[in-house]
Amino acid sequence: MVWTAPVRAAPADPATFVNGLVQQALGVLRDPQMPDAQREQRFSTLLHTGFDIPRIARFVLGRYWLSATDQERSQFSQLFSDWVVRTYSARFKQYSGEIIKVDGSRQESPTSYVVTSQLIHTNGAPPATIYWHVRDNAGDLKIVDVEVEGVSMALTERAEIASVIERSGGSIASLNKTLQQRLGVGPQARTQ
Question: What is the pTM of this model?
Fold first, then answer.
C-alpha cells in the first residue's frame, strides 16, 4: 500500500471532509503488517491535517490556560498532540473491520458544523453514533471534537488533564513533565 499525505476535501462540504479523513484512517488500520512507529506517524499526519490541535489543547487545558506561560502552552500543545496520537494509535490496534458510514452534516452556526456518522460493527452489535464537530475557519475545515455515543472526547481529555494538574499541585510545568514521562520523552523520561 502506498501512503500519500491526506488530501483536503472541498471546504464547503464538512461531510466529505470528515469522510475523507475517516477513509484514510481506516486505510491505515486495515494494514496489520504496519509497524507501530509507522502507524503513529500516519495518524499524526491525519491528526494535524484534520484536527484543530491548538484549539483543542486550549480547551483541554481549560482554566489553567490563563495561568500558563507561552512556553508552557506551546509545550503542552505539542505533548498533548503526541499523547493523542500515541493513545489512539494503540486503541486502534484492536480494529476488526468496523465501517464508519458518514450520513451527513448540519450547520450549527456560520462557522460550526456537526457531521453525523455510524460505526457499523462486524459482530452484529447495534451501530454506534459518532458526531464530528467541525469548525470552518475561512474555508479551512478542522475537527474540534468527536462525540461517540454522547461522550465528548474533548471533555474526557479535559477531565483527565485537570486530574493530572490537580495531583501535581496546579502546575502546568508539572503537567508537562508528567506527559513527558508518559510519552517517554524529555529529561524526566531518561531518569525513570
Answer: 0.83
